[in-house]
Amino acid sequence: MNKTLLILKHEFRKILRSKTFIILTLALPLLLILGFGVYKGVQEWHHPAAPEEVKIGYVDEIGMFDEYTNQSDVLFVLYQSEDAAKQALLVKESKEYFVIPPDYLSSGLITRYTMAREAAPSEKTRGQIADFLISNLLSDEVSPQIVERAKTPMLLASIRLDESGEIASGQDVFSSYVLPMVFVVIFMISIFFSSGTLFQSVTEEKENRMIEILLSSVSTRQLLVGKVLGLGASGLIQVAVWFITLEIFAEVASGTIPALSDLSIPVSVLAWAVVYFILGYLLFAAIFSGIGSIVPTAKEGQGLSVIFTLPAVLPYYFSYFILTNPTGALSRALTFFPLTSPITAMIRISTKAIAPWEIALSIVIIVTSVVVTMWVAAKLFRVFLLMYGKRPALREIVRYLREA
Amino acid sequence: MNTVEVSQISKSFKGVKVVDNVSFNIVQGEIFGMVGPNGAGKTTTIRMLMDIIKPDSGEIKIMGEPINEATKDRIGYLPEERGLYKKITVTESLFYLASLKNMRRSQAGDRATQLLERVNMLPHKDKKTEELSHGMGQLIQFIVTILHDPDLVIFDEPFAALDPVNTQLLKDIIRELKSQGKAIIMSTHMMNQIEELSDRILMINKGRVVLYGSLGEIKSRYRNNSVFIECDHLPESIAGVAGSKNHGKYVELFLDGQTSSQVVLKDLISKGVMVDRFEISTPSLNEIFIQVVKEAR
């Protein structure tokens, strides 16, 4: 059998048996199953008790708030004096009470008394009291319809139009915000995990002194390519497991969870995700194998690798900006900078805000970077493979590269 | 055909010549000893043979051609810097490394069992190598080297960290390999081991070849024409002996150059001397090395 293939198989099987890989790969499916299970369980067993009617006392020092006291889940009880209202609260007849002072119309001041410890009154209570006040203030002046609108002035729906004035696709929150972010996180975890593992794998034979034994059978190129592809294959499996899980989850959840009814992941987006995953992985794999070639142990390379992982997480920090401004200068720049390109392009593809030429250009840029970096990495690997226990200076690296 | 042909290879690191114009040949069925002190350039020469380092100049042919994937499959190499995969079992390691030599799994399995049995490691075959002692690891590395039945075997310091029993065991196996017609290179700074095993030697110092040829021929070349004798008493005069030197337990007799040692022994016996030991003095490789280096200065 081809020796590159043998190394690929060996590395692939090794990683597939590693506990970290198994746990990481199964984490997402398990989390989703757990989440779905909890949701179904709550649906099944939790029957919310009919809301107990809450009583809120009030003291009306103006004398115009006497209607609309019986709302759907709250009863407003009028007390003649603050003392009476306080007594009712103390014997727990009412939950709380508020006072409408004589100068309310000019000052708007309402004082609320409660025995509950709270940072601020709940939105619900606030809304109930506000609705009660609005209803009483307006009922004599305008029609019930207008009262209703004053209470709920709008139910907002916004629609994004494209350049031709047509309704742009991908209107829902899920495909414009959630899906891209899911991609970003999956990408970052998987690319960093696989290429980080590669990093250790490249230094492994130097650390355990297997390198010369291996090189009596294979070339440095076969060894490096075998490792990169072997770990890449495992990363691809991981991503495939996650994507399939997401696809199934989207299918099931959209049918059963009303809030997620329009959940679906377009196949074309998934296809691009696979393409960009492979490209992104190859790029970071090439970079990490280059670093792994220079340093004698994985530990010593950690510092160096941060230089490259830091830019790679930029799209994550700028994700909100990219999502809201996908064709802006920064978004474009991040699309064409090799280290940030895979993730940025994926964010923009999932929001459908990327031109075909941009996809093409970003792919050309990444592929070129991969080829160049891989070439450099293979050279470095060959030159530094026998350097045990010593990290070369930058000047040496440059000199060796020129000589090689 | 020579199994290995090295002609005029040189290698410098940072301006220092580590290997300087070294040439030698190795044929099937011999143990070729590479000796020299630490830092003489032995390991660098071997790494150039294995195409791990490229020579600055000179040419290396293995089995008639520059090293390539096919020839690599016929070489077994035990490097000085060696280890094992810690997290996988002995058997898995052996299978993986044999597969990289294009050996079929079934074949590798049979031969691995046989060799593990031979070095008494069969009970440990399913252990992870990190559970093995250092010496056991060495035995496994030795098996890795010869598992695929190579035609050329290169051992760089093969007995480091081995106890005398296992050292003897490996020496026996190396002699067997020789009798099977394999070409064997043994590199070590332990001159006595080379002396014991090698047919021909290459002695290098500071990157240069100082001696190259058959061990017996070299030894007789450096013989200083004397015999060692241990006996009850020494007669006043002995035929053909020009002088003597008392070493305490034994006496060194210097021959006159015309008489053979046979005649001397005969004369001693005829004079009624009880001989406990009679030995033609041959300098050890160590002494030869010291002499050669002195002469070079």
Please, could you describe this protein's structure?
The complex is a heterodimer of chains A (404) and B (297). With 404 residues, chain A is mainly α. Chain A folds into two domains: 3-30 and 170-403, no CATH class; 54-151, 3-Layer(aba) Sandwich (D-Maltodextrin-Binding Protein, domain 2), CATH 3.40.190. Chain A has 17 helices and four strands. A four-stranded mixed β-sheet of chain A has the order 2-1-3-4. Chain A starts with a helix and ends with a helix. In chain B, helix 3 packs across helix 4. Chain B is built from ten helices and 13 strands. Chain B folds into two domains: 4-213, 3-Layer(aba) Sandwich (Rossmann fold); 224-281, no CATH class. In chain B, 34% of the residues are buried. By secondary structure, chain B is of the alpha/beta class. In chain B, the strands form three sheets. Chain B has a six-stranded mixed β-sheet with strand order 5-6-7-3-8-9, with helices on both faces. Chain B has a four-stranded antiparallel β-sheet with strand order 11-12-10-13, with helices on one face.
Summarize the structure.
The complex is a heterodimer of chains A (404) and B (297). In chain A, 66% of the residues lie in helices and 5% in strands. Chain A is mainly alpha-helical.
Cα-based radius of gyration of chain B, to the nearest Å: 23 Å
Shape of chain A: elongated
Major sheet of chain B, described briefly? 6 strands, mixed
Number of helices of chain B: 10
Which class of the largest domain in chain B in CATH terms? Alpha Beta
Shape of chain B: globular
Structural class by sheet pairing and helices of chain B? alpha/beta
Radius of gyration of chain A: 32 Å
Largest interface: A-B, 21 and 29 residues
Order of helices and strands of chain A: HHEEHEHEHHHHHHHHHHHHH
| Terminus-to-terminus distance of chain B | 37 Å
CATH superfamily of the largest domain in chain B: P-loop containing nucleotide triphosphate hydrolases
Could you report the average pLDDT of chain B, rounded to the nearest whole number?
89
Total helix count of chain A?
17
Just name the CATH architecture of the largest domain in chain B.
3-Layer(aba) Sandwich
Report the count of strand segments of chain A: 4
